[in-house]
Design brief:
It is a single chain. The protein is mainly alpha-helical. α2 runs antiparallel to α10 (about 195-210), α3 (about 55-80) packs antiparallel against α9 (about 165-190) and α11 packs across α12. It has a single domain, classed as ABC transporter involved in vitamin B12 uptake, BtuC. The termini are far apart. The longest helix is centred in the N-terminal third of the chain and has 27 residues, at about 1-30. The protein has helices at about 1-30, 30-50, 55-80, 80-100, 110-120, 125-145, 145-155, 155-160, 165-190, 195-210, 210-235, 240-260.
Length: about 270
């Protein structure tokens, strides 16, 4: 049995850690709404992949990265606030996703189609683990090579710009990493629940620490812990896996809020 469950557990831990870490980066850069839109763009791309009879991952990756590439120019061209542009993009990508799902051959709610909505991490294999490991390696190399610039932007974007750091390219590079992560994770945790894995560990970590490096470490660890605990709870209690992981993460957030040092004293100067 563990021959089947082991790759699923490893995939869950990798998804939890990566989503927690990069979710904290996205929240710090105030790009949470962008991450939400990218998740649904990946959902639309994966649904199109099912229609075309090809692997959903490369198509969802193209959709995610395409959205990351056009959001900036689209905002500047239309001269609309980014929130308005995202408010238009979100329903359009969701609508495309459901239209594509309706065109998938076979039953409307077949197993591959449902996995895009709710996830199917128990069906993960070592190929999925390899894809997630590639995302982990690529994002790790990015942080290692540009750690000074990235952490400067995370600490204070305005001061980073005054110091001569071009913040925009690094911001969009972060979005490309998140887009790759969302595309790699979509079939495993689902388009509806992946957003919770990006935000809940980040919110919990922000309750427990002030230092940005500590927040990133806690968010990654908490995401992995929520994924592992949710996996075991799902197996023991026969619960939907994605929902179990999200609920465990919500419990972590509630506990983090209750014990947060920020509730007892103001932030040190």
């Amino acid at each position: 049995m563990w021959d089947i469950l082991l790759p699923s557990l490893v995939a869950a831990l990798l998804v939890g850690w990566l989503c927690g870490l990069w979710g904290a980066v996205v929240v710090r850069l105030q790009l949470a709404a962008v991450g939400f839109a990218m998740a649904h763009a990946a959902f639309a791309g994966a649904a199109l992949g099912l229609v075309l009879g090809v692997s959903p991952f490369p198509v969802s990756l193209v959709f995610s990265l395409f959205l990351a590439a056009i959001l900036g120019p689209l905002t500047e061209t239309t001269r609309l606030p980014a929130e308005v542009v995202l408010g238009v993009v979100f329903p359009v990508t969701m609508a495309l996703g459901f239209v594509f799902l309706s065109l998938v051959p076979g039953p409307a709610f077949s197993s591959p189609a449902l996995s895009l909505l709710w996830g199917s991490i128990l069906g993960a294999g070592w190929k999925d683990v390899a894809i997630l490991a590639a995302v982990l390696g690529g994002s790790g190399v990015f942080l290692l090579l540009f750690r000074r610039e990235v952490f400067s932007i995370l600490l204070e974007r305005r001061l980073a710009e005054e110091a001569g750091i071009p913040t925009r390219p690094y911001t969009w590079a972060v979005l490309f990493v998140v887009g790759s992560l969302v595309a790699a994770s979509l079939r495993l945790v689902g388009g509806i629940l992946i957003y919770s894995l990006l935000l809940i560990p980040a919110a919990a970590a922000a309750q427990l620490a002030y230092d940005m490096k500590a927040i990133l470490a806690i968010a990654g660890g908490m995401g992995a812990a929520a994924a592992g605990a949710g996996f075991l709870a799902s197996y023991a209690l026969d619960l939907p896996l994605g929902a179990a992981i999200s609920l465990v993460g919500a419990m972590f957030l509630a506990v983090a809020t209750l014990i947060s040092p920020k509730r007892r004293r103001p932030r040190p100067i």
